[in-house]
């Protein structure tokens, strides 16, 4: 599957990175497919070691078994749980056949640790988003 690096650059977690860095992140990631009704994330799972970028189709998000919202292509979810090592706060189920880029914590750490400037920028950006409460579910305050 071809991944559009320019589409990724438009995501808020990548918009400040150059295309070579984004390409490196993708090369150190994997793409995983899910079938309709597959549970991608289970609420309260404690293994928050991956974040997901939807590259095709749609997922449904539930909190306490109540539908919250749909996420579409190029939406990202669980990046904060990944970085902050938190339990999952919602369940995500494939609405259709879905493909996602899987961002592994170790790959992101490796890429950031190879470049001190990138590391500082990444940490600053994450803290800024956390302080602003820019969660993936902006209208739902955790």
Give a quick summary of the entry:
This protein has helices at residues 5-9, 19-27, 79-84, 105-113, 116-131; strands at residues 30-34, 39-41, 50-56, 59-63, 66-71, 76-77, 91-94, 98-104. The protein has 142 residues and is an alpha+beta fold.
Question: Could you describe the 3D structure shown?
Answer:
This protein is an alpha+beta fold and 142 residues long. The protein has one domain (5-131): Jelly Rolls (Sandwich). The protein has five helices and eight strands. The strands form two sheets. The protein has a four-stranded antiparallel β-sheet. A four-stranded antiparallel β-sheet has the order 2-7-4-5, with no helix packed on it. Strand 4 (59-63) and strand 5 form a beta hairpin. Helix 4 (105-113) packs across helix 5 (116-131). The radius of gyration is 15 Å and the shape is globular. Mean pLDDT is 78; it is low at 136-142.
